[in-house]
Amino acid sequence: MLRDSLGRPLRDLRLSLTDRCNLRCSFCMPPEKEFKFLPRQELLSFEEMEMVVQALAELGVKKVRLTGGEPLLRRHIENLIEKLSSVEGIEDIALTTNGFRLKEKAKALKESGLKRITVSVQSLKDEVYSKIVGRNASVSELIEGIEAAIEAGLSPVKVNTTVVKGLNDEEVVDIAKFFKKMGVIVRFIEYMDVGTLTDWDISKVVSGREIIERIGVQMPLEPIPPKDGSEVSKRFRYLDDGLEVGIITSITQPFCRGCSRLRLSADGKLYTCLFAQEGFDIKEMLRKGADRETLKEAIKNLWKSRKDRYSEERFSKRAEGSKKVEMFRVGG
Predict the structure, then answer these.
(1) Which pTM value belongs to this model?
(2) What's the mean pLDDT in 295-306?
(3) Would you list the domain boundaries of the chain?
(4) Topology adopted by domain 12-330
(5) How confident is the model at residue 319 (pLDDT cuts 50, 70, 90)?
(6) Sign of CA dihedral 206, 203, 120, 254
(7) What is the mean pLDDT of the chain?
């Protein structure tokens, strides 16, 4: 098994299909900022993505999560999923979406080989949700998309909620209750300082511990032992029905030491951390005709030298003023 300089194995790939998104979330692509998106020719083709995934599978990657931007904006995404489903060694393909095209896409995604789906839902209130995503939006559209995913057999369906103090933190229990009734797993995420475009401040962070305590007062929980050391979510289950709920604590309880994820951006750069400053340009190698063995050797060298642990060093790194890649470029 390929391991980095801290002994962490390479097991998971986050594959960004596009840097474009139809929302302007305040903690990713703030609406007051201007964005220049990649021209079509700069994006990796599905065939190029498949070739990289084949190389990674031979190096030990088992899981691929499709991200963005908003991945459902990439035309004919089903064709890519079909290609990746046939790659030997890939056991799981999942997708994270904002949900606004999910109702029309869910059945085709399932039929093409997608296993699981996660939908970002930041509020149950139209007014709050619209403020967060930077456009007038109806939460009912998201719920219809989630229902379509459940009906299509994408299981388990999960919801991600980034909790920001003073914005949506008062809804934590309501969100937990709502999706518990639907049988949908919710993962609450501590507000992170991803990219450089937001006005992140630690005073806006609600700790995972506080989130779980709030929920547990009304709906008692018990912890679930981790499946392995690379899990990013601390998992709990409700005592009455056993449904899971999770927290992702990048700020208060960093999990860098178990991170097994590599990220491939839509323009063909490999990033060894969500908070990385620079990526390795594998697209250039692809377009110069590199074969799979050459790609594998480059990836081996990149991973073996990996020493990222930004979340453990967050405040010293921030004091240095280091730049970070934007999340809509590299995927969450």
Answers:
(1) 0.94
(2) 98
(3) 12-330
(4) TIM Barrel (3.20.20)
(5) low
(6) negative
(7) 94
